[in-house]
Amino acid sequence: MKMTVDIPGHKYHIHIKKGILQEVAKYVDLDRRVLIVTDDMIPGEYVDALQKQCGESYIATVHAGEPSKCFIYLQFLWNAMMENGFGRKDLVLALGGGVVGDLAGFAAATYMRGVDYINIPTSTLSQIDSSIGGKTAINLGDTKNIVGAFHQPRAVFIDTDLLKTLDDRNFYNGLAEAVKAGMIADEKLFALLEEMPADREQIQEKYIEKIISKALAVKKDIVEQDEKETGLRQILNFGHTLGHAIESAGELEGMLHGEAVAVGMLQITEDAAIRERLAAVLDKLHLPTSHDYPAEKLLEIIGHDKKVSGKKITLVKVNTIGKAELVKTNMEAFKAQLLG
Q: Which listed site, 110, 277, 301, 332, has its alpha carbon 20 to 30 Å from 139?
């Protein structure tokens, strides 16, 4: 299956196919210097499969986990390109989850003011969401994604076979972003998540490609209308304002991203019937529905959020499944909701 993201001045394809990791060179030019950015939890055979398709490749391996989205590893990637003579026509290839994609994409965006990069996501989370859209970033201290750039990939390759090596926690973690996509823009996707079995093996064999394609279709449509997040694209932040605060409160080593977003979505949802349906789906997908962090601590972190302007914050609300709206809320009212 192939989907096309069509943004003014930049068009690229998303290829969704089992086994496509072995065929990347059929679709894109790998006959140039290629920096393969990966992490130390990615199986070696994945890296080998890519190297065999490249003319001249170099490997840059970072530690797995959110703390690697930092300036030290960004500089590590810049140095790897500079020391190996990379020019503006060369390529950065991200092979990993969302951390690798964000970090490699930001390195590509900033080296020589921008070189090509390709995303090959290996986690459920990155295949469902972060691999497209062009957001690249690193964290600053415990604040997520505060330094970054918009830099669209040249192509995205989604091989669902790569999910087989994930543990259960990381497999289900990524499905939170599919829940989000259904909640904000696709009632049928949400219904699919309600109806499908909870068994991982069945999800992976019978449902995952459909879930990924439907979730990506939601994001593709939104990004095409609002690449730089000046309006509509902000609805993709449903559950993320509180979710990012929960991640930061755990010093980026507590809840995983999807887990924190799951809690954030549920807490921001006000309609009792929708909350009940959402909680049931999250429970089925082994995602948490509560957290133990003090509201005051979360509010302190949220004060640094990009969506805060003056004494107001832009929140994403869902009052009908499949439809989201942006609501500017007084920070005092939001504080009362969290404390309530």
A: 332
